[in-house]
Each structure stands twice: as structure tokens, then as C-alpha cells.
Write a structure and sequence with these properties.
mainly alpha; 76% helix; 0% strand; globular
């Protein structure tokens, strides 16, 4: 397992398009339906991770897309499911949608733009300024579409970008939806009481 190529990164991020399915199931069938689906999917992923981690079975498609740090631990896809499950269970619908979509499309834009065009490294973790800017723009676009408040939109996009850029040991697929969703939920709650 070495550093993955741009093509593998593209495939890896393409898998995150399942977030659109999460949004659609929630929108058309409700919270209970998406929670049940996410839990079932999580059981499947944990079963695959068990085979990979505990039994040493190399599952070709999965193994090829893993990053170095995922070789001896849970893959990012498991954290993505946990983050999505928390978002749909705890946050209001539009905030959950924003948190999940920023985790998918914001993170995807940061990774792809940063890997392809990133020249200016801003942290020791290798993140690029170009990737951060791309992520912030995509995150802002998402929240502006879903939130009515422009200040909360800008701040939520910043929180998601900040988390993706600075969190190193905590998987961003878990941290982005939790932190951005919690911030937005708290901000809208405070707005009501001001």
C-alpha cells in the first residue's frame, strides 16, 4: 500500500457519491429509513473490514484504494458512514444535508485540486492552499443553497474547511459532519434566542 495515484484518488472520491443516495433516501423516505439503511451498510463495511484487518484477506478493489494510514485501521468509508449517521440522527434536515454534502464534495475538491494543482503547502500535513480554497468555495456553495443565513453559511463553510485542513489524526469523514453540523445547529439555535 503506497501513496495512491490521482486516478485512484478520483475513484476513491467517486465512492463518496453515495452521499447523494443518503440525501435522496432521507428526502423521500424519511429519517428512519436512512438510519436503517446506514446501519445496514455499516454492518456490511465492518464485515469487510473484519476480513481485511482481522483475517488478513486482501480484497482487491478495497485494498487498492486504501491510503497508507488505513492499512492497519478502519478505512475512511467506515468513518464516513458514522459521520453521516450522526448527522441524520442529531441535526435538522438541511444541516444534515449540508454536513454530508460538504464531507463529500468539499473534501473531494480539496483532495483532487490539491493533488493535481497544489503548489503552496500551508501545513506540515501536506495540505495545499489551492485545495483549501477549492474546498471552501464548494462548501460555501453547498451551505448557501441550504441555509437562509449568509453569515452562518460562511462560518459553517469555514468550519468544515478548517476541520478538513487541520485535523490529522481524526478522520475528516467523521470530523467534518460532526463539527460543521454542530456549529450550524448551535448557530441557528442562538439566532432564534437573540
Amino acid at each position: 500500500m503506497t501513496s495512491i495515484s490521482f486516478a485512484n484518488e478520483l475513484i476513491r472520491k467517486g465512492i463518496h457519491f453515495t452521499s447523494i443516495l443518503i440525501i435522496l433516501v432521507y428526502a423521500f423516505f424519511g429519517k428512519q429509513a436512512i438510519q436503517t439503511l446506514l446501519i445496514a451498510y455499516f454492518v456490511l463495511v465492518l464485515s469487510i473490514e473484519h476480513l481485511r484487518l482481522d483475517r488478513g484477506i486482501k480484497i482487491p478493489f478495497v485494498h487498492k484504494l486504501l491510503r497508507q494510514k488505513e492499512g492497519k485501521g478502519l478505512g475512511s468509508h467506515a468513518y464516513f458512514i458514522i459521520g453521516a449517521l450522526i448527522a441524520v440522527s442529531v441535526f435538522s434536515k438541511n444541516i444534515a444535508f449540508a454536513a454530508i454534502l460538504m464531507t463529500t464534495f468539499g473534501d473531494m475538491s480539496a483532495a483532487l485540486i490539491g493533488k493535481r494543482f497544489g503548489k503552496i503547502r500551508i501545513f506540515a500535513n501536506g495540505k495545499s492552499l489551492e485545495g483549501c480554497i477549492a474546498e471552501f468555495i464548494v462548501n460555501l456553495f453547498i451551505v448557501v443553497l441550504l441555509f437562509e443565513n449568509p453569515i452562518i453559511s460562511i462560518c459553517t463553510a469555514f468550519v468544515a474547511t478548517f476541520v478538513e485542513t487541520t485535523f490529522v489524526k481524526i478522520d475528516d469523514n467523521l470530523a467534518i459532519p460532526v463539527f460543521s453540523g454542530a456549529f450550524a445547529e448551535l448557530a441557528f439555535l442562538l439566532l432564534v434566542y437573540m
